[in-house]
Automatic annotation (TrEMBL):
CDD domains: AKR_AKR9A_9B. Keywords: Oxidoreductase. It comes from Kribbella orskensis. The keyword Electron transport does not apply. This is Aryl-alcohol dehydrogenase-like predicted oxidoreductase. Residues 16-286 form the NADP-dependent oxidoreductase domain. SUPFAM superfamilies: NAD(P)-linked oxidoreductase.
Length: 311
């Protein structure tokens, strides 16, 4: 296991993050977390909306919590009878955070993610509330999930101006079957130095299955390419799919969920798989993905024959 810095901070995080959404019991989670920790993994990612995941993680980490970079999220509805028990406003953040800390049996979170963009709450309010939580020592770093690139860019620019805590990470879906972040979100994250936690890197398991399970022609084409590359490299399809997310950008950390130690072991093996350039090209060609406007329009040739030297 190798490590990188989390965004523009000094926090060391492992190449692969462990998602805790699938945990259904302590007995299921303990051997998975033990294997992950034994392999050098240190980031465990959960959320208040993941059923009993926080309670399970809190119990499994009892006595060794500080060994891990513990992350959770807020935003999704917590109580259908309370209109303020959802969203990114200050009231919900405070109550959601206190509840997560109790369930996780800790006095602070290493990373607290805004779970999704709430268009009804000014981003300034969310940033200020997060900064207060950082100054109170209840969270150490902040991240944002499932938000437009312009919101994240505006947020971090405002935070820099006001000396508030900036978002150090971005959590978004990314896989061979869903490459949308390459249009705006991934270039923005790289420009701002954000760590990208890629959720659903196996497209909810599809990329680890047989091509016969594909529901449409595009999926079938991608699954066939993944399986061909896997056979050539002596790897599993899941390992190829995970390795591709890492090959495309150093900012990306796959966020892999596992329901068993065997499944996690297969995912961890992807960290040692280096995809040849030809294989990466073949996989990407199978996706029929286009960046679209303005990325396809503003190419290096756009400036014409008198381009700047760039040195």
């Amino acid at each position: 296991m190798r490590y990188r810095l989390f965004g523009r901070t000094g926090l060391r995080v492992s190449e692969l993050f462990l998602g805790a959404m699938r945990f259904g019991s302590v007995d299921q989670a303990r051997p998975i977390i033990d294997l992950y920790a034994g392999s050098g993994g240190n980031v465990i990612d959960t959320a208040d909306a993941y059923g009993g995941s926080e309670d399970i993680v809190g119990e499994v980490l009892a006595g060794r919590r500080d060994r891990f970079v513990l992350a959770s999220k807020y935003s999704l509805p917590r109580d259908p009878a309370d209109i303020n028990a959802a969203g990114n406003h200050r009231k919900n953040l405070r109550l959601a955070l206190e509840s997560s800390l109790r369930r996780l049996r800790t006095d602070h979170l290493d990373i607290y993610w805004v779970h999704f963009w709430d268009r009804h709450t000014p981003i300034e309010e969310t940033l200020r509330a997060l900064d207060d939580a950082v100054r109170a020592g209840k969270i150490l770093y902040a991240g944002i999930s499932d938000a437009p690139s312009w919101i994240v860019a505006r947020a971090n620019t405002l935070a820099e101006w006001h000396d508030w805590t900036e978002f150090a990470g971005l959590q978004v879906p990314y896989s061979l079957l869903q490459r949308d972040i390459e249009r705006e979100l991934l270039p923005m994250a790289e420009a701002f130095g954000l760590t990208v936690a890629a959720w659903a890197p196996l497209a909810h398991g599809k990329l680890g299955r047989s091509a016969d399970t594909a529901v449409d022609e595009r999926e079938h084409k991608v699954l066939v390419a993944v399986q061909e590359v896997a056979r050539e490299l002596g790897a599993t399809p899941a390992q190829v799919a995970l390795a591709w997310t890492r090959a495309h950008s150093r900012a990306v950390h796959p966020l892999a969920g596992a329901s068993s130690p065997a499944q996690l072991a297969d995912n961890l093996a992807a960290l040692e798989l280096e995809l040849p350039g030809e294989a990466v090209g073949r996989l990407e060609s199978a996706t029929d993905f286009e960046l679209g406007f303005p990325r396809d329009f503003l190419t290096d040739d756009f400036l014409g024959p008198h381009q700047l030297d760039g040195r």
